[in-house]
Amino acid sequence: MVDIDTDQQVDGIGALPQKWSVENVRFSADGASVVILDQTLLPGETKYLKLNKAQDLHEAIVDMRVRGAPAIGIFAAFAMCVIAGQSKAKDYIEFKADVMKCGDYLNSARPTAVNLSRQIRRMEKHVASMEGLPIYRIIESMRCEAEEIQREDIEMCLAISKYGLTLLHSGDGVLTQCNAGPLATSLYGTALGPILLARERGVDLNVFCCETRPLLQGARLTTYELDTAGIGCTLICDNMASIVMSEGKIDAVFTGCDRVARNGDVANKVGTSGLAILAKHYGVKFYVFCPSSTIDPGSATGDNIEIEQREPEEIKEMFFKSPIAPSRVKCYNPAFDVTDNRLITAIITDKGICEPPYYESLTKFWHPSE
Ligand code: MRU
């Protein structure tokens, strides 16, 4: 893992117009590494990492240096190109076996976001479609495919943001959970996209951000993105959502998601289902935003979605000067939870706004690769 100068960020996906734009995933100029913005250090430090070893690439996902469902899918596609470029395979059969092994390894990094496995399988299928070509040509083509995945995500985020904007009115109070902005995706983000777009169009909102324990993506990343975009926001601890809603400050909850089941159940950052229950109680609208690549026809309901379990240290030690609990104490640290589709007002995708019953409305928006 190599740290690089932030000035090097200009040779990636091109000039990015908005001041809040970030290049969270790109190839290095020689194409031999993936460059990421290390999200674990934000907001205090802006550091880019240049990664090319399989283990470092895998760990970057596990340690959440790169995170957010769409971003880890894009990153994995880029990582596969870098690792494939190091293959010593003598023929196509050996090369394809190397690619499959690499895909399985990267896919084992985090289980809940369907985007990770989806983009890995897409890259594997791409390689399978190029049998007969010289290996160097296949690697070149893999790079184009990975960049195409990123380009598609940019388009999907913009489309989601435009649909989402239609749900907002000047003066609305919006509550966010975790981080579903540019850092987690490409350009606008999903749940944060309509808020960024609203700002560009002069629509003023009152944005509240849940801090999102234990890794504080809301406090560290969402407020950072909003602040950079010049959007005022109010940070609250997760357990303050009820009082803020009871005081009538929130018109809608805007959240991203990591996997949508066929019936509309949604897995997202732990705490999301609690917000949905509160929203129902207080008559607040609850909107979920995602690219169509996050809809998983392979999961019939939320019960089929594997929930990632993470290390206890995240709860007991991280972000504190000294440990905040006895070291022997047991922790339960699920990274995600499932929100029952009956609590969701609508699911906003790049293809349109899905309303209940979700079995019917989502079917129209399955990703084309299904
Ligand atoms: O554990 P994280 O930080 O990767 O979790 C991220 C979320 O829960 C996001 O809401 C989700 O990935 C959607 S990002 C557009």
Offer a few descriptive terms.
370 residues; four-stranded antiparallel beta sheet; 14 strands; binds 5-S-methyl-1-O-phosphono-5-thio-D-ribulose
- Structural class comes to alpha/beta
Q: Helix proportion of residues, in percent?
A: 25-40%
Identify the quaternary structure here: single chain
User: How many distinct beta strands?
Assistant: 14
Distance between the termini: 35 Å
Report strand %. 5-15%
Average predicted confidence as pLDDT: 94
List the uncertain runs.
6-16
Please list the strands of the largest sheet in the order they lie side by side: 7-6-5-8-11-13-14
Shape: globular
| Overall radius of gyration | 20 Å
Small ligands present: 5-S-methyl-1-O-phosphono-5-thio-D-ribulose
- What's the number of helices? 11
Most strands sheet: 7 strands, mixed
Summarize this structure briefly.
With 370 residues, this protein is α/β, with parallel strands linked by helices. The chain has helices at residues 54-62, 69-84, 92-107, 114-128, 135-165, 193-200, 217-228, 241-246, 272-282, 313-316, 358-363; strands at residues 2-4, 25-27, 34-37, 48-51, 173-176, 206-210, 233-236, 252-255, 259-260, 266-269, 285-289, 336-339, 346-349, 352-354. The structure holds 5-S-methyl-1-O-phosphono-5-thio-D-ribulose.
Can you describe this structure?
The chain has 370 residues and is α/β, with parallel strands linked by helices. The protein has eleven helices and 14 strands. It has helices at residues 54-62, 69-84, 92-107, 114-128, 135-165, 193-200, 217-228, 241-246, 272-282, 313-316, 358-363, and strands spanning 2-4, 25-27, 34-37, 48-51, 173-176, 206-210, 233-236, 252-255, 259-260, 266-269, 285-289, 336-339, 346-349, 352-354. It has a seven-stranded mixed beta sheet, sandwiched between helices. The chain has a four-stranded antiparallel beta sheet with strand order 1-4-3-2. A hairpin with a 2-residue loop joins strand 13 and strand 14 (352-354). Helix 2 packs antiparallel against helix 3, helix 2 packs parallel to helix 4 and helix 4 runs antiparallel to helix 5 (135-165). The longest helix is centred in the middle third of the chain and has 31 residues, at 135-165. The protein is globular and about 65 Å long. Bound molecules: 5-S-methyl-1-O-phosphono-5-thio-D-ribulose. 5-S-methyl-1-O-phosphono-5-thio-D-ribulose binds at residues 64, 67-70, 113, 178, 180, 184-185, 190, 217, 256-258, 268-269, 335.
